[in-house]
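To assess whether the prediction recovers the assembly geometry, we first specified each molecular entity separately, as shown.
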Amino acid sequence: MAKFDPFRGTRVPQQVPRLVAVFAVAIIGLLVARYFLVPDTFGQLGHYRAAALDTIVAHEKKYAGQQACQLCHFQIMQKRLAGNHKGVGCESCHGPAATHVSDPAQIKPSIPSEREFCLRCHEYSPSRPTGFPQIDPVRHNPMSFCSNCHDPHAPEPPVIPGQCSACHGQIARQKAVSHHAGLECTTCHEAPEEHKVTPRLVRPTKPTERSFCGGCHARDADSPPHIPRINLRLHNPRYVCWQCHYPHYPETP
Amino acid sequence: MNPSERDPAREESTRPTQEVDRREFLKACSLLAPIILGVVRVPLLNAQESEGDDYDPSEHFYAMGIDVDKCIGCGQCVVACGTENDVPDEPYFFNTWVERYLIRTDGEVEVDSPNGGMEGFPPTTAEGDIRRSFFVPKLCNHCANPPCVQVCPVGATFKTEDGVVLVDDEYCIGCRYCIQACPYGARWLDPEKHVAAKCTFCYHRIVEGLVPACVEVCPTGARIFGEVERRATPLARFMRFNEVQVLKPHLNTEPKAYYANLDGEVR
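The predicted structure of the complete assembly is given in tokenized form:
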């Protein structure tokens, strides 16, 4: 059988069609290879494999997000949102809880019970923004876990005792039954508000002069007439008054 | 011409069987190639076409705002990020980390970030001579003009339509060019998978409408995540009411991590 040769009799040199054929095969091969090697979705959205997004999106969540907790822990959520920890997400304290959300009966999130845990945020550090509530862990009620005194879901700001008696009970009780019962503590002590928060750092004043008591008890004092009087110049002038009369329970020996 | 001199070309043409062999070979190749390559391709075909069901990336454009004045350096973000994104505990790599800046009275600047701030910060020494001190959270800036994407030789790191810079784990060849190129030190090489890794803005969370893990646990609202371009979002509000800055603006990377109250000393 005669071989088919389309170029027979033409002037095209024999090697040209062969070269053309080889090139054609190479180019087609390249295109085919490219078609098969360049991943499917490459270039669909940009110079990358669009399918990569699926892998990335399929990544398993560990943190459920606080919206998820609301469904079952509605009350805690409401309490938290009304308190000082409103910005602190549940999982910031209880750790990742996506597994707990999908199986609450079996998987329980962690419950912090160490002082160190709260101190992560509340320990004093000069780098922290001013105004952020910080404590000195050595002096702030050591030995006791924080949630004994503060509700972790709605911690209260410092509760300042309104009365001096909250801390000076004995003095207050003595004074209450003494001749000085009618006098306020602040008549004799200038007590700044900070004294109630940091009592050892900020101390109230104490009378230092005989003339202070004299302000009520001296003969010429401008005070209610029923107050007993002494001659300030002659009444035991070598001593201050409280060396003989206890000011919170003054008695006449 | 001396007939005894053998001309190889002519000899070849006189032996047609050899020519058929070559042609057959080429034919066989062109038939086999698709089959061989087909084997390579089949697994790729199985991948699904598009991502989340009703998520439309063209409707979003994400960025993060960081209020330096609010950061208390508790490191909860570093912990959460590590957990959420399976960042290996050791050696110490981070998608996000917190730096502590200490500016002394003599102007000397000290920056430290022990274990990325994951366990908080130890008390500073010599407190007396500190002029000011603060914490700066750092992360991938998700640049609009990312150098890491430009240098990737295979197109394994890319910028999505919604403004997030991601890495294709299956396509990355681990050449580390991007790690070199990132001016913010935000990339690292996964020691097990041998691919580049980085912050994804928790892409798997944000397509579901959740916030990134670091934002979820931040107690003070120092991190604000959201849409830049729409008016009524927390981030848009943050950017309207604060004078925001970016890190290394001169590099023209157009970062999308916007810092408020940023000290001039922060690099």
